[in-house]
Amino acid sequence: MKDIREDIAWAQINKDVLKSLENPRRMYWVILFIAIAMVGVAVGCEVYQYTTGLGVANFSNPHVWGLYIATFIFWIGMSHSGTLLSAILHLMHADWRKPIYRFAEAMTTFSLMTAGLFVAVHLGRVWQIYYALPYPNMRQVWPNFQSPLLWDAMAIFTYLSSSILFLYVGMIPDLAICRDNMNPGWRKKLYTALALGWEGTDRQWRNFRVTYLTIACFLIPLAVSVHSIVASDFAMSQQPGWHITSFPPYFVAGALYSGCAAIITLFIILRYVFKFEEYMTMGILKKIVRLTFAIAMVWTYLNLIEYAAVWYGHDQAAKDVLIQKATGPYAPFWWAMNFCGSIVPLIMLFKRFQTHIPMMMAVSILLNLGMWLERWMIVAPTFSHGYYPWTWDHDQWPSLVQWGIVFGSFGWFGLLFMVFCKVFPSVSMYEVKEMVYHRSQATKKLEATGKMAAAGKGAH
Amino acid sequence: MSISTLLENYSEFRHFHPVDDVPHNPYKWAMSIDLDACSGCNACSVACYAENNLPVVGREKYLHGQAMHWMRIERYWDEDGREFPDQGAQFLPMMCQQCEAAPCETVCPVGATNHTPDGINSQIYNRCIGSRYCSANCPYKVRYFNWYDYPTTDNVWPAEMNQQLNPDVTVRGKGVMEKCTFCIQRVTVAKNNAKSEGRLVHDGEVQTACQQACPTSAISFGNLVDPESRVHKQWQVQKVELDKDAQTKDKEEGGSDLRGYRILEELRPYPSVMYLERVRETAI
Amino acid sequence: MNNVFDRRDFLKVLGWGGAAVALSGCGNGSVENGEETVVSYVETNDFMIPSISVYFNSTCAQCDAGCSITGRIREGRVLKVEGNPDSGINRGKTCGLGQAGVQHHYNPDRVREPLLRTGNSGEAITWEKAYALIAEKMNGVSGEEIAFLSGGVSGHLKVLLGNYLDSFGCKNHFVYEAIAPAVVRAANKKSYGVEMPRFNISKAKVVLSFGADFLGAWISPVHFSQQYAQFRKGADGQRGVLVQVESKMTLTGANADRWLVVRPGTEGILALGIINALGSHGVALSGDIAAAVKSYNKDRVSKDTGVSAEQIDKIAALLKTRTPSLVLAGSAAEGYAHGSQNAAAINLLNQVLGNVGKTVEAAEAVPFPQMAPATGNTVALKTLNDGLNAGKYKVLFSYATNPVFTAPGVMKFQDNMAKAGFKVVFSHYMDETAMQADLVLPLDSALEDWGTQVPEYLATCAQINIQQPLMEKLHANTRGMGDILLALIKQRRAEDYKKFDDYYAYLRAAVLQNKGALGGKAIADDDIFWNETLSKGIIKLEGPVKALSSKASVAGLMLPAPVAIDAQYPLQLIPSVNASLRDGRNANQPWLQESPDPLTTIVWDSWVEIHPRKAAELGIVEGDIVEVTSKNGSVKAQAYLFPGIHPDAISIPLGRGHEAMGRYAKGYGVNPFQILDAVFDKETGELALHETRVKVSKTGSRVIVVKDEGPAGGSQMGKKIAARLPSDKVKLSEEI
Fold first, then answer.
1. Is residue C702 part of a domain?
2. DSSP assignment, residue C77?
3. Quick one: average pLDDT of C174-201?
4. With the C-alpha atoms ordered A212, A217, A223, A229, is the resulting torsion angle positive or negative?
5. Half-sphere CA count of A130, side-chain side, radius 13 A
6. Contact indicator for C399, C151 with CB cutoff of 8 Å
7. Residues C617, C575 share a domain
8. Is the same domain home to C173 and C236?
9. Residue B5 lies in a domain
10. To probe the interface with B, which of A50, A64, A314 has the most B CB atoms within 10 Å?
11. CB distance from A390 to chain B under 8 Å?
């Protein structure tokens, strides 16, 4: 099974991809409409919560955090896939990434934006959010540099700006193609401005390559650090169930995991919606699925390590939280998380399911459900069963406002993503061309050596 | 406004508590609560509502765990499976323990909760952005968040009732964290009075609202640095040291016969509240 | 319109309102449109300095214990009350109830105008009209046709009230306090010769309390709490031992070293059993006592009460070895048809132990008997109720009591009250009784009114408490009870009272008249004496002491055998008295509603306490809405599984379940007064509060109990949170 047809003409690639900017399937509009509706729900909930107070989310003492923080981590985690596919695989010369990295990068950017919103939604006084930034001021009032939450804010800000840059830089040659192929109109003006006068000269290509590689190199440690820092929010605190050394790698693995699963989901959606069957092929799907499976196993390992560390550690409170997760009111969710995170990926072992679109769609969604539950199961049970028994509260259930905003965040992400795919080429044209060229060259070479070998054989 | 001033300015106020070199000087406010005297009557809690403008949240919000009692009385039963609690119950007044190495302080992104030079864990309402990380990291869960706008939209103090509000204490709006302050408004007045007379605050000159109300005088409050203060003497007699995460006396064989202990001391928050154990009569 | 606020206007505003101190909150009105008034600090009262608090002494009126308070006043508003350290009763301390006094004062639901009933609604009228109306209704009415119902009154108000009623030749002053220890008073009178001796808890080494919740709601809890603290420390380093005997754990029971659950109503039997056991431990018993307790041997008592024989022995041993001790008969013991007998048996124990004169002492009496507190309970209410039912009364007054809420439902007080011709209720709130009135007269709060009060329980000396306004009146059209009575008495005896412009003048004249007797012999100047008296807030007196009779008598002591379980109504209902809500008069103070019940930590609602074993039998779990049915009705409330109650009893707290009164009281909880059985103490005729028999059934619905306690319940989960040490290890004398 080939990753891509090697005889696609370059003009055909341009035509196929640019077509996605104009007439997607009707499903596109359905998805867009649903996304807008979901955003509407979230906006309604947020307005209510903003005017009334966070109490309507049914937070309490001790449940001061809830789904917002869990979903925040979830979206941060999602953002890791783009970096993985673009940067890590780029450095590793895995060229099958080429048709899909663009949307993965877009996913990174938009999931970070969604995550950022959760910070705002979560805060009691969001109008003072700038206090958390070290802006210069006469009174020497600074944020608290000891706080992991501040590291968080900085890391996310850096990561977001870097990933936007990465997305944009990688898109410049394609924007030039768009510019050159568009009829006059707002789109043409947009692409003209964004293409920054790209003409494809050798010098431009050279500079482009260096820039892209540099950002990629910069982004990888950043991505790892971002989720390590999010993990520090918990690991650096002193609460049972949070104060765990293995949290940073565990969080990074979880992030890559949910990101990969999300790529499968979006892969399948885009493939259908924008008729990208030629580019998002079964061969590539198979590779992502295998990659996802590998990461799933890493995550499972780290997850078990966490349990083991808690179980064999002598911190009774942490142990109680773990027992509480497995047997208390959160048990269904906790077991569902372990099932979705560690058992469901086993389906990916079967070759015939690896390219089975409905099955992979279902699996990828289940994986992400599992990963979302994982974050919730990190945040909530510690509150319900902390150090101080008197304030235990096992029954706090997030209110509809909280659920509405979490639900709407998926719509928000979908909205941004779908609009992006309609406005910008979601498959990298120039890289696909490269890929087709390299692949066809390699095949030719192979065929040539094959012929020679056959000839030689015959000669004997 | 440069980075260098930031760094200077920053490290100047970032002591590591309990301080390795000099203890707080001249004040370190601390408390001791005698559980053998405490009858669990809740007077302290109501007095705290009166003094500190605590909002009454009502039935529905109480149900959702959104009560704002800075001082809560916990009631514990014996856990040996008796059919009747024939040795009574145990009451424990629990409020902010004013930890020296407070878990809440390090995690606040904006530095809204701070250690004052006299050892109180202060909360700056103006600075708070409501991330609630402090509460998440508090082992005692004694921080209370303003989930609603109690003074305005919730109308906790309807006309006339608002006239009772203590002008020395901020009425907190929506979205900020609050907690027991050791009645810092009273402490400040006492300190200022003393300062203007060129002396230090005497023992007993300042009482917290809970201490003042307590019908059994179970609560003592004072300056731990002052060797004449009752609190200092109590801590000394009970051999409870502020900067220990496990008291030397407890390492003695068979444990200690002294009643003083601090709750969750082993987590190293170095709380400033010492409790004196309730006594169980053996003759009956 | 030109809105520029120029300098001249500014000065004008500052100059306004200097004479009349009107106060404003933080509303949205403005000075210009007259909604707010600016108080000038240029011409202010000399005590009023912006941002500086001043303190005035007064007396707490939240209950009748008579604690002296100091109000903190700033910018003319009273902000907080603290205890007055000079008072021997509360020595600078307060309880939660007392703290909430300011919420009574600032309560948004106070009645602000005299209200006259027209049909089903009230019409605001002027005071002149109200007084004229009363005069008109009283015209030609004979003394027998007037009834005045009040709560406990004392001091000059009682004198004035008496004079007013005398002017009609009316003898119908009924004093009704729903939860007053009326039976114990009578029993004390019999045993010791006085109704209210002084109990020296701090001197006792052992306190054996039969259901006296002296740390919670019994008589003078703040005073007893201080005594308790001393008792625990012990005068000579020996920590006092508290043993509590009751069927439902009270706050005091929760603090006991040994809490003994007895079958409801068998407290007296246990007391006699202990006397019997003391006898066998070698305590000399007089012949008649020995004979009386002869049949109360350990096995029988143990069988009757449910307290083990071993425990009875232990108590007897303890009482014998540690002297002096103190035995208290409290509300749990008196609440039965044989309540007087119970209390007598318990008091007998004090006499046998020789505590009379040591820990049970005679208290000084206030040397002005006319000012001594008028006390009473259901007997008075019953008389009134019967009279009302017979249509005897043309005019009914009601003050400081809420019988429609607190009278047992079976008395049908509300219906009978309607039979009175004209009903005047003096009230702070539109409570249940005020709702039935023809004329409601709004009262000043205790923090803005003048008065004197004599506490029933005199802790250290005879004293008269002064109540003085801590701030200007909040509402223009409320009046102090004293002022109202003065106005009413002027309708009758204008000549005698014309020299008193108001109650303040009356009070001042009355105090100064007795200056010598009130400790002012050395002070020549009336003003100085008066001001000193006000600033102290207490007049301490030397009163006559009548020695207690220590002669133990067992004449007429007859305790019935425990009642067999009634198949139809198998459970005993114990209406419990919560320290903050008491009989419900303070239910509209939100701090009290939100202050958790110490034992269950429940807020804002009523609950049915039921023992876990009984609950398991009945299939009840926490939060089940259960219906509690007696012969006289039923109430529905949430169940709370509570280990501190006898399995054959359930308990519902009093004080909640208001149908009127205000936003914080109305609709929260249920009122168990409604379903009480009409069983009365055989000797005194007072209501036997604990004699109601009920059955409990599940209704099928379930709620989450609103309480502070979490799912861990009262468990510390193996952590050292509320720790304890055995008494033989601690050395209290070495502590600070």
1. yes
2. E
3. 91
4. negative
5. 4
6. yes
7. yes
8. no
9. no
10. A64
11. yes
Range of C135's domain?
A: 115-177+376-442
Contact: A389, C704; criterion CB under 8 Å: no
Chains that touch C (3 or more CB pairs under 8 A): A, B
Residue B91: domain span: 14-276
Q: How far is B2 from chain A (nearest CA, A)?
A: 8
Confidence of residue C675 (pLDDT cuts 50, 70, 90): very high
Q: Mean pLDDT throughout B6-14?
A: 58
Are residue C171 and residue C194 in the same domain, yes or no?
A: no
- Residue showing tokens 């009473």: C376
**The three-state (H, E, C) secondary structure of C109-154, written as one string:** CECCCCEEEECCEEEECCHHHHHHHHHHHHCCCCHHHEEEEECCEC
Q: Which residues of A touch B143 (CB under 8 A)?
A: 61
CATH of the domain at C657: 2.40.40.20
Identity at C649, one-letter amino acid code: A
> Do C203 and C289 fall within a single domain?
yes
In a domain, C535, yes or no: yes
Residue C385 falls inside a structural domain = yes
Mean pLDDT of C4-23: 36
| Pairwise CA distance, residues C601 & B137, whole Å | 25
Does B51 reside within a domain? Answer: yes
Query: Considering the domain boundaries, does residue B55 fall inside one?
Result: yes
Is residue C133 located within the same domain as residue C188?
A: no
Asked if C165 and C416 count as a contact pair (C-beta separation under 8 A), the reply is no
The DSSP code for B175 is T
Secondary structure class of C726 (helix, strand, coil): strand
Q: How many domains does chain C have?
A: 4
DSSP 8-state secondary structure symbol assigned to residue C672: G
Residue where the block lists tokens 């058992």? A343
Write down which residue in C312, C332, C361 finishes a domain. C361
Nearest CA in chain C to B160: C106
A264 contacts A16 by C-beta, under 8 angstroms: no
Residue C723: which of B72, B277, B283 has the nearest Cβ? B277
- pTM (two decimals): 0.91
Q: How confident is the model at residue C40 (pLDDT cuts 50, 70, 90)?
A: low
**Cβ burial C115-132 (10 Å sphere, 16+ → b, else e):** bbbeeeebeebebeebbe
User: Could you tell me if residue C734 is inside a domain?
Assistant: no
pLDDT band at B72 (very low <50, low <70, confident <90, very high): very high
Position B8 in a domain: no
Q: Which chain C residue is nearest to residue B32, measuring alpha carbons?
A: C736
Question: C598 and C697: one domain?
Answer: yes
Residue B51: count of CB within 10 angstroms of its CB:
26
Do B164 and C102 count as a contact with CB atoms less than 8 A apart? yes
In a shared domain, residues C276 and C306: yes
User: What pLDDT digit, counting tens, does each position of A204-230 carry?
Assistant: 999 999 999 999 888 888 888 888 999
Q: Is the peptide bond before B167 cis (omega within 30 degrees of 0)?
A: no
- Locate C108 and state its tokens: 């948004």
Residue A259 and residue A109: Cα distance in Å, rounded? Answer: 12
CATH of the domain at B251: 3.30.70.20
Could you give the number of structural domains in chain B? 1
* Residue A128 structure tokens: 């003072």
State yes or no: ipTM above 0.95. no
Judge if C285 and C193 occupy the same domain.
yes
